[in-house]
Design a protein that fits this description.
Shape: globular
CATH architecture of one domain: 2-Layer Sandwich
InterPro entries: GpA_ATPase, GpA_endonuclease, Helicase_ATP-bd, P-loop_NTPase
Organism: Pseudomonas cuatrocienegasensis
Pfam families: GpA_ATPase (PF05876), GpA_nuclease (PF20454)
Protein name: Phage terminase, large subunit GpA
Largest sheet: 10 strands, mixed
Number of helices: 19
Oligomer: single chain
Structural class: alpha/beta
Bound molecules: zinc ion
Distance between the termini: 76 Å
Length: 649
Amino acid sequence: MPPSSPIPGPFNPDTNPYMRPVAWAFAQPCFSRVTFVMGTQMGKSVTMENIIGHRLDEDPTPCLYVAPTRPLIDGTVEPKFMAMFDECESLAKKYEARSTKMVKWLGGTKFRFAWAGSATELAADSAGLVMVDEVDRIVNTGEGDTTEIIEARGDAYADSKIGYTATPTHGRVERRKDERTGIWHWVPGAAKKIGSKVWQLWQSGTRHEWAVPCPTCNDYFVPWSDLLWWPGKGTPEECTPDEAFKHARLVCPCCGSMIEDKWRPWMNARGVAVAPGESVSKKGVINGTADTAGFTHFSIWVSGLCSFAVKKSYGFLAKKLLAAQLDGTPAKLLAVFNTGFGEIYAEGGDVPTWEEVRALCWGYAASELLLEPLRIYCTVDVQKNRLVYVVRAWYAGLGSMLLEHGELWGETDQDAVWDQLSELLDTEYGDGHGISLAGVDIGYRDDQVYKFINEHKGRAIALRGRDRLDKPFRKELVEQDKKGKTRKRGDARWAFDSPLAKRWVHSRFGRPDNRPGWWLIHQQVTDDYCKQLVGEEWHEGDGTFHQVGENHYLDCEAMQYILALRDKLQRRKVGSLTLVELGAAVKVPRPAALASGEDPGPDEAPEPAPVPPKAHPGDRRQPAARKTDAAPAKAKAKPRLKIIRKPSR
Ligand SMILES: [Zn+2]
């Protein structure tokens, strides 16, 4: 192993014992494919290098190594192989001078590098051993499924082997206890819910998982993210990420003992690969027959909690996970579950039904401000015959409450409806809180939108949703209008990553009560509003949103998030409250107290007490259901300002 590796010296599978079954599988004639799935800093690449080096040395066959990009091969992969060839005496002797950067010759055997999209290199010649690193980054190149081309490379060799590895990416799966053996396993998910190629490959193989013994009871179990514990986890008394770093433990699912990180190497040294249907004795002996016995594809998953890297401790992972949960941004959670734990993650969350969205409404009336806001935004979706708008108040820690939603009717190429929007922008809420900024969706009626924005300079901006953007939002100068004429005013618009913003909105539905970043809807939301919020569904399989109904309010709410990011409200932590703390701060009585309170007007009849959304047992990604006692209804439901806007046609 080259000196730059985490643990220098000759490759020793005892430093990362979970690679023993991987190396073993490559040596078994019964397996033609080997897939190993794990997070970062687990030794994946080093293992691939060593298996290729071993094969070239002991049992030569043409080898092919596939990586995501050419720069990665040039800058990282090829130098590491060269270091290995230099260090290993027998390989150094076999290394031939005719070797080039991309094609190595060792003792008459060819070893080639290829990368995704390099159709020529990939199809150049057959190989007895093909290694594919970071397969999830390879197939996501938009040039078709590279694995199909790769699979064809081994055709010329009867005993060819293909190895796949990657840190997994998108997908939704559950873990379930196998009642026959008492061991928890990943349940194979439907293909449309798994965007991660390496996870699909893993599911199609023997589905081994790395199990370790508990130092207390000696029973074997498979570590995964849910077994990681920190003080107050999931409760209002939860500790900080820094405290989690100090006090994190792994909970044994068999005896409940709290395992300290110092046991990690001891447990790993005794680890075994276990497939569904197999049980493990306290001495680490596998019993029974795997459901997948006879498969020619060996696959194994290893949790990041079993990393051999000293740095990747229980505390390190707990701190990362808790920080991401406090933040709640789907992209951050995705990164922690993927790279930290080696688990797939569904960024879209489980989208509730519209009735469940409706049941989330909190105890306050339309237009009512519960607390002094940092900002109030109005976002507008432009349709042919109406403007759809949402007004939302924002607080520290990205908390927010819906003030109003509605439609202003009128042909949007005429001025009348825009005059109505001007009036709306002058609305004041609570004790004189005006709308800080309006964001108007551009892309339809551009001339009218820019005219409106220029008439409200400093109070309105144009927003443009994109299906893909390298950052959440970016300012763009608009040089030309649709007809190709140069715009005189130098209009600007803010492009934003529309799927990212919509995923964030959807992530708010299940926001636990003990986290900041609550996202409230008032008691008078319409069914139409609730339906439109779930008018698009995120599909993990292809990583896109699919429209299933009207979605204008979802667009408006997505733009709200972008305006908050643009004002950097996510950095305003001082005074941020959890939903539980907010309930205490506004001191609202329970729904039961409502009967004896003021008579709410006929159109302000309170909704039934909030009902928890559908729970998903076994799926940790669905945060704890909202507790009824944390979502009290407001007795004084009368809004301080009543605004009714009806179709003007
Ligand atoms: Zn135990």
